[in-house]
Design a protein that fits this description.
The longest helix is centred in the middle third of the chain and has 15 residues. The protein is built from four helices and seven strands; from the N terminus they run E-H-H-E-E-E-H-E-H-E-E. Helix 1 crosses helix 2. The chain has a single domain, classed as Gcn5-related N-acetyltransferase (GNAT) (Aminopeptidase), CATH 3.40.630. The N and C termini lie far apart (42 Å). By secondary structure, the chain is of the alpha+beta class. Helix content is 27%, strand content 31%. A seven-stranded mixed β-sheet has the order 1-2-3-4-5-7-6, sandwiched between helices. Strand 3 and strand 4 form a beta hairpin.
């Protein structure tokens, strides 16, 4: 399936919250918290939807990375159950990492539920490493959070050379 991504707006908060409360049951963000982050210039939130259906939001993700700060934080990511396992979470994460880098971040952090091995696998495959555990972080379920970090590599550039005698 093809997806389009765009920057989330305040008009998307209700659709984001339908996913948020459906995915995260007991530890979902409040509408007020989500609306504040979506509107915050230090944050960068994306929504994903099928082409030509911009209100049919199937996934969202958010980053906190003030311009010029050397650290960013993946605030949240949610993908509807109907479209999980198709790479959409990876695409959203890669876009957030690219945005963090563009804003000056050299490291990106996140917390992930200790009982969510599929998300942990995605983050590890993107280069995140586990730093520690926050005991009882997710309430009211009292589930631990793994704290993970990605070191964003500095881009490297080199001059291209061609030996014309071999051409």
């Amino acid at each position: 399936m093809t997806w389009q991504l765009r920057r989330a707006t305040e008009a998307d908060v209700d659709a984001i919250m339908v996913l948020e409360t459906g995915i995260f049951d007991n530890d979902a963000w409040s509408t007020e918290m989500m609306a504040r982050d979506v509107a915050d210039p230090a944050c960068y939130y994306l929504v994903a939807f099928p082409p030509d259906e911009p209100t049919n939001i199937q996934a969202y993700a958010g980053l906190l990375a003030p311009r010029g700060a050397t650290e960013g934080d993946i605030q949240t990511i949610g993908v509807s159950a109907a479209v999980r396992g198709r790479g959409l979470g990876r695409v959203l994460m890669l876009r957030l990492i690219a945005e963090a880098h563009a804003r000056g971040s050299r490291q990106v952090f996140l917390e992930v539920r200790a009982d969510n091995p599929s998300a942990q696998g995605l983050y590890r495959s993107l280069g995140f490493e586990e730093l520690g555990i926050r005991r009882g972080y997710y309430q009211p379920d009292n589930v631990d959070a793994l704290v993970m970090r990605l070191q964003i590599p500095e881009p490297t550039a080199a001059l291209a050379t061609t030996d014309i005698s071999e051409v």
